[in-house]
Amino acid sequence: MFENLLKGKTAVVTGSNSGIGLGIAREFARAGADVVLNSYSDDDADHKLAEEIAAEFGITARYIQADMSKGDQCRALIEKAGSCDILVNNAGIQHIAPIPDFPQDKWDAIIAINMSSAFHTTAAALPKMRAAGWGRIVNIASAHGLTASPFKSAYVTAKHGVVGLTKVTALETAQEPITANAICPGYVLTPLVEAQIPDTMKEYDMSREDVIKNVMLERQPSKEFATVEQMGGTAVFLCSDAAAQITGTTISVDGGWTAL
Ligand code: NAD
What pTM did the predictor assign? Predict the structure, then answer.
């Protein structure tokens, strides 16, 4: 549907050696964009992933190691990428604990990786987008960028912060051919989520289907996971001409969660 839409553009996707980031990078590649994959690791498997995407879609794909918890490495990622027409801020981690018990290092890491990294990459990418005369920033927030849950103080704070940064970025670029938006996913079946299913089945003595419907998707009215391909398709749409006047807003892909 979006074939060749993004030919000649370079998309940098942070935290893209797994899950939603990888799904988004693949959909950009399918739409003809060259892609830069990233994570904090520097394994053969990371570079092989880029080679496989390049071969599958006939585009250029590179893997660049950079730790999104460090501001200077966030900025270095964008510099090493060379071009950055499309920036997707996706890297993220989670930790769950009540506020008095929330470890300070986990708070600092979540704020740095899930929120501050988007500030640093945006600061480095905007001059490149301005020089190129076109740019798209897609921040991967969450239903938790719009609503809250107990025990996720750092994550909810960071994701609300990402939505705020998205609005400011949009206002600072409003009269330029650059847009900034946030995608707010509900529950997406990434390897991270899949790995939690067997333990939860044991814990609740429930079938896989019951764990998914009644535990994991309790707040997702569709009772279905969103998919990484749907996140990728939404990101590609935000880079299309049809979305040129969509800026500074959030798009929920959450099976109705935020309608409740
Ligand atoms: P995931 O664990 O599969 O992916 C997270 C990615 O971030 C991985 O590639 C990981 O290597 C990378 N990463 C982690 N720390 C990093 C660091 N310091 N530097 C660079 N990269 C780092 O999880 P996911 O579910 O695909 O999550 C991706 C994004 O989507 C996150 O921002 C998450 O908050 C958001 N999200 C996920 C869901 C869901 O249900 N899966 C829902 C809403 C929002």
Answer: 0.97
